[in-house]
Design goal:
Radius of gyration: 18 Å
Number of strands: 9
Number of helices: 6
Largest sheet: 9 strands, mixed
Shape: globular
Structural class: alpha+beta
Length: 295
């Protein structure tokens, strides 16, 4: 019998989650705290980490949490861990961290115990930071709980505080002519919630970068750009690749090409309930990297 999918939490639980977000949000530091962050070339930065969670199509319980560490500036993988996990909470918009962050925190803690010399000096997180409904996305959550500098890197715009993927926003995207060019994401409140970044000359779709913890927005954008060989920064891209491959090997799933590839950004009808995994089609695996406005 297949494991039972997590059900939507009762309103009392959601209220507790919101209170926990508010408590932890007070600990977020939106400035550079490390010496390596303050110089253009990031001298002293040797290790950058990336995290990702992949899911199996049609399975609302099993997932794969991955942590990779890359050398910097070479961007070569020096550490990786991927583990199958059982989800105990469903996806609820605005509360992604309560579903995924515990597994990622555990992965960081295992690395600290096994190979402290390989601990990342910064984590790039597949999701949002302060660009979030409560100003406390998964990148903030993971940063505060691990006390590591964290950067939120999303592939879709989370439409909060008046931000919209409207005609004006699309016009601004068209004005990004080269890799490294940006424009600010200014909410209706007047707050700068993040930056839209053209990450690569050959990429026309921007990334949405926001502060997670212990880093300024300027540094977050510069480092994200420096980590991009392709559209997605290499730490996140490698975590995604390795999490998908781990699931395929462990569960004996076909390789890409033998089945159509499913990513979360492609739309299919959402089943009853609040799970966000089915937002894609093709690949038997899906990751948080592809969800519109992952939170």
């Amino acid at each position: 019998m297949a494991p039972k999918a997590p059900q939507r939490p009762p309103e009392e639980t959601l209220l507790l989650w919101k209170r926990e977000q508010a408590r932890l949000r007070a600990r977020v530091v939106q400035r550079d705290t490390e010496a390596w962050q303050r110089e253009p070339g990031f001298p002293g930065l040797r290790r950058v980490g990336g995290v990702d969670v992949s899911f199996v199509k049609g399975d609302s319980v099993r997932a794969c949490a991955s942590l990779v560490v890359l050398s910097y500036p070479e961007l070569q993988v020096v550490y990786e861990e991927s583990r199958l996990v059982s989800l105990t909470a469903p996806y609820v918009s605005g509360f992604l961290a309560f579903r995924e962050a515990p597994f990622l925190v555990d992965a960081v803690q295992r690395l600290q115990e096994k190979a402290p010399d390989l601990m990342p000096q910064v984590l790039l997180v597949d999701g949002n930071g302060v660009l979030h409904h409560q100003g406390f996305g998964v990148a903030c959550h993971l940063g505060v709980l691990t006390d590591l500098p964290c950067i939120g890197v999303a592939k879709k715009l989370l439409q909060v505080d008046g931000l919209e993927n409207d005609a004006r926003h699309k016009e601004q995207i068209q004005l990004l002519r080269a890799g490294g060019e940006t424009f600010p994401l200014i909410g209706g409140s007047g707050a700068v919630l993040g930056m839209a970044l053209r990450s690569h000359d050959r990429s026309t779709k921007p990334l949405y970068v926001s502060v997670g913890h212990r880093v300024s927005l300027e540094t977050a954008v510069r480092l994200t750009h420096h980590c991009c060989r392709f559209r997605v920064p290499e730490p996140v891209r490698q975590a995604d690749i390795r999490s998908r491959e781990h699931v395929r090997r462990t569960l004996g799933l076909p390789a890409p090409g033998q089945l159509s590839v499913m990513t979360r950004g492609q739309k299919v009808p959402r089943p009853s309930g609040s799970s966000r995994e089915p937002e894609g089609e093709g690949d038997p695996l899906r990751t948080t990297a592809e969800v519109p406005g992952q939170t």
